[in-house]
What does this fold into?
Amino acid sequence: MIRDELYKNMSNKMSLPGLLRRVDRLHKLALRNRLVSEVKAEPGQPVILMILEKAASSDYSVSQNDLAQALHVSDPTITTSMKSLIRQGYVSREQDPADRRRMLPKLTPQGEEAAKKCRRCFNKVNAEMLDGFSKEEEEQLLSMVRRIVANLEKSIDR
It folds into this structure.
């Protein structure tokens, strides 16, 4: 709390990296608060639910290993998340038709509904974040941040 008060007072004096960190922190907090109240999801789970939802709508199978790689987390971390999602009734495991030794995570009907709620939460928080911006301003902001990302990626590749 004290840190948040300090940030509020310092926002006008912060550097661009400091402001971007602040935006990231506030976005995560707003999203977490909304997800906890509306979906009862633990950190990391909403993204897993949405990836599985996207895979199902694309007729694409996603393994736990695929999820771990996509989310840049370890296999034990994804295993813990999957066990929790199964306990909550959001995910089941089905045998991979291409490799009967492998089990694939699938959304249950309850998981499909939770994934939709997660997507709505992300959309609401993003809309709140950009409240008061015109469509043109939103596009300009996105364009500038993409350029920053591209510049930094080039810098890392050197």
Observations:
- The mean pLDDT is 89.
